[in-house]
Design goal:
Strand order of the largest sheet of chain A: 5-6-7-3-8
Shape of chain A: globular
CATH topology of the largest domain in chain A: Rossmann fold
Number of strands of chain B: 0
Strand content of chain B: under 5%
CATH architecture of the largest domain in chain A: 3-Layer(aba) Sandwich
Oligomer: heterotrimer
Enzyme class (chain A): hydrolase
Pfam families (chain A): ABC_tran
Low-confidence stretches of chain B: none
GO molecular function (chain A): ATP binding; ATP hydrolysis activity; transmembrane transporter activity
Radius of gyration of chain B: 18 Å
Keywords (chain A): ATP-binding, Cytochrome c-type biogenesis, Hydrolase, Membrane, Nucleotide-binding, Translocase, Transport
Protein name (chain A): Cytochrome c biogenesis ATP-binding export protein CcmA
Largest interface: B-C, 28 and 27 residues
CATH class of the largest domain in chain A: Alpha Beta
Chains: A alpha/beta, B mainly alpha, C mainly alpha
Structural class of chain A: alpha/beta
Chain lengths: ~210, ~220, ~240
């Protein structure tokens, strides 16, 4: 039995003051991945942001060791005037994990290392955004639609990077629509949709 | 943290005129004043301390909204919030980067602008000292204001409305230091009071700024 | 029953429904008695003549202007610490009343200042402090109206209120340092020696009570409106979700 790195018990999350998910419970063990599915607006982003502690949970508990999470949202967090190498080096130094070479290799960015990030194509920018995860050295990856604007070859690169991460004992929670070719559990969020409170009863939280 | 500072300074330089913009604005304010009040040294000299401080303050205000806005828009701020650095530290470093690109050049250039305004000889030392001690507070208060308004679409004007009243004590003591220096009075008292505000600001506002950022990131 | 039970919107609505009417009545009675007494049944001051009678508007509004900000500070703290929505909404509701009181104090001061000092406006420390307080109210209200999400707005305005209070306090002393003033000493001092004489003092107390009850009634009315708006917002969200 592998100790779960990330454990969620009866979690409820809100978006814009409205509870959208409730009763979410799952465990992800070291070395495994969880794919989140569900239609647009089902709360995938909300759940990932809650797991990353960017927003507070409405109720329920999240068990994860401190400072283990790397969150990659819709935006890549790149600075256009900095080169690819400078962008990565910055995030590496911030997370105290200096070496950017493996990340460059994993996403085939080595030839682009001196190019300013603003001159990259959308797919190249996305690859750089994902390479950022590798330089954090964090075991828990929370990825929100990571394959947007990636071509088939790049999706393959990404899949292999996730596999290596899992093989190294890491875990990944990925919200995605496409098949990444990795062995992962699937959690469909449409089953956890919060039911609207009935009647005119307003409690303290007006919800 | 040093990485963040270096990145912000590099961004300020590469974005074209990160250092220059505030200085140019300061220069324009100082040049426009004599056109407004007349060229007489008798008029300019008494108001020079106030104009210099006001010009520095407005030049500082100019670039405040960029402190967090770009990082908020491109997702860097979310990543910074999950990084193993305290958000309070991020706020403090951002304010420091802002000071290095605006407050410091303004402090160094202020004596030159003082000449344009016929600032009397006794005021120059106090001018540099008061700006050196006072502009860090302007940057820190500004970073707090920028953290409050970072999620808003048109936050720039609101930011000025929120920040300017908070600048009043620093402006009063800063300009008074120079005025007393010019008149040969004891300028140490307002300078020390202003330094007190600056240090208090530096100690407390990173926490308020980080709290505001956390709310805006939700 | 604990005081905090009124933080429940439903209890608050039920309770204030009973309190608000009497508060309006008390305000009307105290203001009419106090103002009529003050304006028509007090002697003219030996130096200031009849102009002194403006204190029955000036002093209570100035007193309320400061204390409403203090009330907003307290309710903001309660929101930040205990997360009672009613508290945050009460702070929001009080701000426009506070800014109006500040404006009344400034305007009556200007009208009084013209015959006394020969000018409508002087950069006297007290006047300047009130002008700064006016700016703080404006910024606070602008921040409320600029943020769409009500909880985010409540959090950010509360932080602003906290920081603003510290700076308002600093400004008060900085302004004293900057300019010694023309303004007479406090009318409402604990030190009896400095106080105005009893003939003016009793109607002034009645006026103060009137202003207080007026504030209480207005702030309850506005808080109730804010609670209803907040409910409407929650219902809209629910319907969008359903």
């Amino acid at each position: 039995m592998v100790e779960p790195l990330l454990k969620v018990v009866d979690l409820a999350c809100a978006r814009g003051g409205l509870t959208v998910l409730e009763g979410v419970s799952f465990e992800v063990a070291s070395g495994s991945a969880l794919v989140l599915r569900g239609p647009n607006g089902s709360g995938k982003t909300t759940l990932l942001r809650t797991l990353a502690e960017l927003q507070p949970a409405v109720s329920g508990e999240i068990f994860a060791p401190e400072d283990t999470v790397a969150y990659a949202g819709h935006a890549d967090g790149l600075k256009g005037t900095l080169s690819v190498g400078e962008n990565l080096t910055f995030w590496g130094s911030l997370f105290g994990f200096g070496d950017i070479a493996p990340a460059l290799d994993a996403f085939e960015l080595r030839d682009l290392v001196a190019r300013p990030a603003q001159s990259l194509s959308a797919g190249q920018k996305r690859r750089l955004g994902l390479a950022r995860l590798l330089v954090t050295g964090r075991p828990v990856w929370l990825l929100d639609e990571p394959t947007v604007s990636l071509d088939v070859a790049a999706v393959g690169l990404f899949g292999r990077a996730v596999e290596r991460h899992l093989a190294g004992g890491g875990i990944a929670v990925i919200a995605t629509h496409i098949d990444l070719g990795i062995d992962a559990d699937v959690l469909d969020l449409s089953g956890f949709r919060a039911s609207a409170p009935q009647g005119g009863a307003f409690d303290e939280a007006f919800a | 943290m040093r990485g963040l500072l270096i990145r912000d300074l590099r961004l300020a330089i590469r974005a074209g005129g990160g250092f220059g913009l505030a200085l140019a604005f300061f220069l324009i304010v100082v040049i426009l004043v004599p056109f407004g009040v007349g060229p007489s040294a008798n008029v300019l000299a008494p108001i020079a301390p106030g104009i210099l401080w006001l010009g520095a303050l407005l030049a500082c205000l100019l670039s405040l909204d960029r402190i967090f806005a770009t990082d908020f828009e491109d997702g860097s701020l979310e990543f910074l919030a999950t990084a193993p650095v305290p958000l309070e530290g991020v706020v403090a470093v951002k304010a420091l980067a802002h000071w290095l690109t605006t407050g410091l050049p303004l402090t160094l250039a202020a004596p030159v602008f003082g000449i344009f305004l016929n600032l009397p000889g006794g005021g120059y030392g106090w001018l540099v000292a008061s700006l050196a001690l006072g502009t860090p507070a302007l940057s820190m208060i500004g970073a707090f204001g920028a953290a409050l308004t970072v999620g808003l679409k048109r936050g720039g004007l609101l930011l000025s409305l929120l920040v300017l009243p908070l600048y009043i004590p620093t402006l009063i003591f800063g300009a008074d230091t120079v005025r007393r220096g010019v008149e040969g009075l004891d300028a140490g008292t307002p300078l020390i009071l202003m330094a007190g505000i600056t240090f208090g600001t530096l100690a407390l506002l990173p926490f308020a700024g980080a709290a505001a950022l956390r709310v805006n990131l939700r | 029953m604990s005081f905090w039970e009124y933080a429940n919107p439903r209890r608050f609505m039920a309770f204030t429904d009973r309190v608000m009417g009497p508060a309006f009545v008390l305000a009307a009675v105290a203001l009419s008695v106090g103002l009529v007494w003050g304006f028509f049944f007090t002697p003219d001051d030996f130096r200031q003549g009849s102009t002194v009678k403006i204190i029955y508007l000036h002093v209570p509004s100035a007193f309320m202007a400061i204390n409403i900000w203090v009330m907003m500070l307290v309710t903001s703290l309660i929101w930040l610490i205990r997360r009672h929505h009613v508290s945050a909404l009460a702070a929001k509701a009080a701000a426009p009343v506070g800014v109006t009181m500040t404006l009344i104090a400034l305007m009556t001061g200007a009208i009084w200042g013209q015959p006394m000092w020969g000018t409508f406006w002087a950069w006297d420390p007290r006047l300047t402090s009130f002008l700064i307080l006016f700016l703080f109210y404006l910024g606070y209200m602008a921040l409320w109206s600029a943020i769409e999400d009500p909880d985010t707005a409540a959090d950010l305005t509360s932080v602003l209120c906290l920081v603003g209070s510290v700076f308002a306090f600093l400004s008060r002393y900085a302004v004293n340092f900057w300019n010694q003033g023309l303004h007479q000493g406090a009318s409402l001092s604990m030190d009896a020696e400095e106080n105005i004489s009893d003939v003016f003092w009793f109607p002034l107390l009645v006026c103060l009570a009137g202003f207080f009850f007026l504030f209480l009634a207005l702030v309850l009315l506005r808080t109730r409106t804010e609670i209803r708006k907040r409910r409407a917002h929650a219902i809209t969200l629910r319907e969008r979700a359903a």
